[in-house]
Design brief:
The longest helix is centred in the middle third of the chain and has 49 residues, at 143-191. The strands form two sheets. The chain has a five-stranded mixed β-sheet with strand order 3-4-5-6-7, with no helix packed on it. Strands 2-1-8 form a three-stranded antiparallel β-sheet. Helices cover 54% and strands 15% of the residues. The chain has two domains: 7-50 and 151-243, no CATH class; 67-141, no CATH class. With 253 residues, it is of the alpha+beta class. Helix 2 (18-26) crosses helix 7 (197-220) and helix 6 (143-191) runs antiparallel to helix 7. It has eight helices and eight strands; from the N terminus they run ααααββββαββββααα. It starts with 9 loop residues before the first helix and ends in a 10-residue tail after the last helix.
Length: 253
């Protein structure tokens, strides 16, 4: 039998159409996993904007505190009273002292210490990382230069973040779809419906569609759906989807 709907009907009709779910169960072939991957790719696009907002919010705390620093002849000079602290809340993230008064991370009582020639970065319970700044070359660093560097880094970091998030979400949802395909068989037994595993897998993917779209819209509005509520909504749609599969649909819409 020729199916009545295509994947382009899923984003809207998956919210309410029993005929769509019957058509998917009895007439569609395959698993619909390709559609799930496409849906995830689209729904994760707003996370790039959210990640950019988070980076900007946290970076602003540090950028506004960066003094003008000159790296020259293997030494660092700072145009600010010293010791100079870059803080986040009540915690000193970086202490800068090129005068020689403070030379150890323990004495600095900070997460990192920059002297005239060395950068120390603390590690929990381990010896600090030590970087020789004498090989840093000749350059100047201030708030404007640091902000420009951050913008350049975001051109790489944000796409990389999206790719990693997409890969993680794809693996997670593929595993969830495989599990929910089996749950669809259980729902079929409970409701006495004719559902095999491939059909259950297709229905599970379709049942993910409304919660994913709602989660994306909520995120765009600055809100969020709790994970337990998302899971309950997806299972509710799957239960209703299986319940709609009483018999093969007729050729009429």
């Amino acid at each position: 039998m020729k199916r009545q709907y295509t994947i382009w009907h899923l984003p809207l009709l998956s919210f309410y159409s029993k005929r769509l779910y019957r058509d998917i169960s009895f007439r569609w072939k395959g698993t619909n996993l390709g559609f799930l991957c496409l849906l995830l790719a689209l729904c994760l696009l707003p996370t790039i904007r959210e990640a950019n907002r988070i980076i900007d919010r946290h970076a602003a705390i540090y950028l506004m505190q960066i003094p003008q620093m000159q790296f020259s002849n293997g030494r660092v000079s700072v145009d600010a009273p010293q010791p100079y602290s870059i803080i986040d809340g009540n915690r000193t993230m970086l202490l800068i002292d090129t005068t020689g008064q403070i030379n150890t991370l323990a004495a600095a009582d900070a997460s990192a210490l920059m002297t005239a020639t060395t950068l120390y970065i603390g590690q929990n319970g381990k010896d600090p990382l030590v970087y020789d700044l004498s090989a840093a070359g000749e350059f100047m660093l201030n708030q404007e230069i640091a902000a420009e560097f951050l913008e350049r880094m975001k051109r790489f970091l944000l796409p990389a973040y999206y790719v990693v998030a997409l890969l993680f979400a794809t693996v997670l949802f593929l595993l969830a779809a495989l599990l929910c395909g089996a749950i669809a068989l259980l729902f079929g037994q409970i409701q006495k419906r004719q559902v095999d595993y491939p059909a259950g897998l297709r229905l599970a993917v379709t049942a993910f569609t409304p919660p994913l779209i709602l989660a994306t819209l909520f995120q765009a509005a600055g809100l969020s759906i709790p994970v337990p509520l998302y899971l309950l909504l997806a299972l509710a749609y799957l239960y209703l989807a299986v319940g709609s599969c009483r018999k093969a649909p007729s050729n009429t819409l």
